[in-house]
Specification:
160 residues; alpha/beta; Nucleotidyltransferase, domain 5; 2 domains; 39% helix; globular; Integrase core domain-containing protein; Integrase_dom_put
């Protein structure tokens, strides 16, 4: 197993160290038990979750979707040949805002570079339309790791 620092470790050694550092986590991993977290959403349009889906990329098809995390309603699905362009994904977000007729309280995306324009648009729109200062407007977007963006990840499992 390699690391960014160029240190190589044997898989067994990593397992032993994890057993010392995090016994419960290692046991859960071995038993394939995931620790589920409760997902609380205050109401409609409180959180919009968005993500890209690449399972069909080998066929030249990508999908980018937006859902309302409270109702799980699909707000917008865009099919294209590329879902890695931040400007294009930002345009998809603005199209969703126009289609819905407003902005959410918060947006949630993974940490990919393609989501930077969504965050920027959400922050700017929150400042302009909600009258928030920059510090508060920056809280209107949440970057998360993809598996924790549960609502949109659930959509992909239903579609495929």
């Amino acid at each position: 197993m390699g690391t960014n620092e160029g240190i190589y470790l044997k898989h067994d050694n990593v397992g032993e160290l994890l057993g010392v550092i995090d016994q419960q986590g290692l046991m859960d991993h071995k038993q394939r038990q995931l620790k589920r977290h409760m997902y609380h959403v205050k109401g409609p349009n409180h959180i919009w979750a968005s993500d890209g889906h690449d399972k069909l990329k080998s066929f030249g098809i990508t999908i980018y979707g937006f859902i309302d995390a409270w109702s799980c309603q699909i707000l917008n699905l865009k099919v294209g040949i590329n879902n890695n362009d931040p400007q294009q994904i930002g345009v998809y977000f603005l199209e969703t805002v126009a289609k819905v007729g407003g902005i959410p309280q918060r947006t949630s995306t993974d940490c990919g570079t393609e989501t930077l324009d969504i965050a920027a648009h959400q922050i700017n729109l929150s400042k302009h339309y909600l009258g928030l200062d920059l510090k508060d407007a920056e809280k209107q977007h949440k970057f998360t790791i993809s598996p924790h963006n549960q609502k949109i990840e659930c959509l992909w499992s239903q579609l495929m």
